[in-house]
Amino acid sequence: TTHVLPQRVTILGASGSIGQNTLDVIERHPQQFQLHAISAYNNVDAMLESCRQYQPQRVVMVDTDAAQRLHQLLQQHQLSDIQVDSGAAALLDIAGNSDSDIVMAAIVGAAGLLPTLAAIKANKRVLLANKEALVMSGQLFIDALAQSNAMLLPVDSEHNAIFQCLPSAAQQQIGQQQLAEHGISQILLTGSGGPFRQTPLAQLAKQSPAAACAHPNWSMGQKISVDSATMLNKGLEYIEARWLFNCQRHELAVLLHPQSVIHSMVQYQDGSVIAQLGQPDMRTPIAYSLSYPERIDSGVAALDFTQLSQLTFAQACPQRYPCLQLAIDACWAGQAATTCLNAANELAVEAFLQERIGFTQIAEVCAQALAVLNVAEPRQLDDILAIDEQTRCFVREHLRSVAA
Ligand code: NAD
Ligand code: MG
């Protein structure tokens, strides 16, 4: 494929961990990539800094007051030709308008669903970090992709690794592959087990937000860090992999790998296993998804194999990680369940971060929301948004009764 260079990039969720890493990679390749637009919820300081450093044409702050403050600050810094907008409509506009070629979907949580779908419908090259969008909308997301001329590249390190280990024919059919026809027997999704992998089970309940966010290998936003500690992140990734690679149940398995050197693997029918290895640095999958099928410098150092002492593997313990099993069960129960689980978890994690509930209550809240869920399978986007909202209402009420 030939592209008109430079390609114009929009970053949704630019103030976050993935967003900032994306800016870092783009800056290394000014001939190839030009920043069109960036968005954030309300982090004015981060966006001012990014405007000064990277000079996008447009900025969207979802929060109106934040947009006003940023606008004033940009004027003070002689950057008034950067257009600042606010609100959900502006976010959809930068996701789908014709002024960009590539959209990095790096908003956290359900808030990223509509803008990510807008980018797909607008036939962009969509770099998907926002796993919650796919977890919520599943088949609808894959159908929208199939009906568009968009190209989806997974940024989540595991899914990016799996993508790299697929034959190119299977890479061209995201969400539609018949894995067995490509000689694939199983996808092995690896996960570190998070900061509490060796914490005595009896001490899990009293773990603090700071401890949960101290991931041993990766530096990430708060929500995904807590999800990594409960391993609901691996559960969301399991659902994400099910959709991206059109897996059947026996074709997908989770494996603990505490060193995070192997980022996931594909096992073939002939006994071969292909793995992708690298430093735990998101700039590698970000660079890959920006430049695919070519390779560019990401700023990440090569692995030094002589410094690796060992690579170990184990099964995830169900007593330690009840959220993982909740997600696997939800995955095969259907899309109402996965939408419900995602919404319940978002509120439970928020309550945990605010110290309104304890660490082990995250799983309890999710299990409770799934237990009372009683709705038909969603058939369209409105159904999904209704299940999301209904779950949030239930969980808010439930949190009032359980929170200390
Ligand atoms: P983060 O919390 O650091 O950043 C989130 C971004 O989303 C910020 O720019 C924030 O302003 C924006 N945002 C938050 N709420 C919003 C709302 N309601 N409307 C619009 N924008 C909103 O998160 P992150 O760690 O960068 O993760 C982003 C996404 O990428 C998540 O879905 C996460 O699961 C996924 N991901 C992250 C990593 C990682 O290493 N950080 C790895 C794999 C996948
Ligand atoms: Mg991941």
> Do you know the CATH architecture of the domain at 7-154?
3-Layer(aba) Sandwich
Spatial order of strands in the largest sheet = 4-3-2-1-5-6-7
The averaged pLDDT comes out at 97
Ends apart, CA distance between termini: 57 Å
Number of helices: 16
What percentage of residues falls in helices of 4 or more residues? 40-55%
* Major sheet: 7 strands, parallel
Taken from the alpha-carbon principal axes, the silhouette is: globular
Q: What ions, cofactors and ligands are bound?
A: nicotinamide-adenine-dinucleotide, magnesium ion
Uncertain stretches of 5 or more adjacent residues? none
Radius of gyration: 21 Å
Order of helices and strands: EHEHEHEHEHEHEHHEHHHEEEHHHHH
Domain 1-deoxy-D-xylulose 5-phosphate reductoisomerase N-terminal: 9-138
Binding site for 1-deoxy-D-xylulose 5-phosphate: 131, 157-158, 192, 215, 228, 233-234, 237
Cofactor: Mg(2+); Mn(2+); Co(2+)
Binding site for Mn(2+): 156, 158, 237
